[in-house]
Amino acid sequence: MKFVACNFFTNDNSIVENYFDQKVFKELAYASKMKTKLPNGKIDLNYDYVLIPVEDLPKVLSEEFLLMQDIMLPRIYSETQLSQEIIFSIINKFVGGNRSMLEKIFLEIRFIKEIDDSEIEITYSDGSFKKATNEASYGVTKLLAESDSGLYDDFTGKKFLHQDFSEKIADGTNNIGELTGLKIAVQNFGDKEYQLIVSDSEYSIKCFREWYYAWRDNNFRNYAKKEIANKKLVLEIFKSITDSKKKVVFKWIKGHNKSPFNELCDELAKNAFDK
Questions:
Q1: pTM to 2 decimals?
Q2: Do 102 and 143 have their domain in common?
């Protein structure tokens, strides 16, 4: 499967932000979401290294959407050669054919490159918590070679052999289990430039895809001016991500939705309590 990597910019507006977060980016893989304050006081919303699966794009553009070319298309910058069909199909994915959306908001898309799934190393992660013993755990599985005898991966639509990691954590919480799973994933990155971490934990993904940047600007204190939970672990993981020199992309996946590798991680995490 092929993907188009792009950076996406729009104006910060609660309605616009909610639309993109829930309708467009919810289940897409991307590296980070940041709000940037401009000199004029306005704020831009930036989604970086968004991976758009090319195979999911419509082959034929609707006549209605083609008419949009005559009004206000997003500002387009491309560092790679893409067909008009792919470019307009991606725009259509972002705005859902919503003409009024294009007319009312600032929108900029910077196409970076086309990426084959063979260029992406994928790791799934999950965490768990056992209230009776106050223990946490993690389950992590790293995709290895493609194989007909392997487990099916939803992201690529292919089967892979895999390497598994799991362990219980004394005096933990569910969030500590989820974060530690990400820590193990980062510690076991391979040589590929693009590293994808897939998790059903919105908390752990948002820590590094979104919240970290706001926390950093507020000396790692939350809106109540209290130190963020799990600060030491969050800082340790982010430093490992930065030190890896990789392009780290995160993908949220719905839990208990029959995704083979997600279910495997859940099983690994739960079984860790019996070790």
A1: 0.91
A2: no
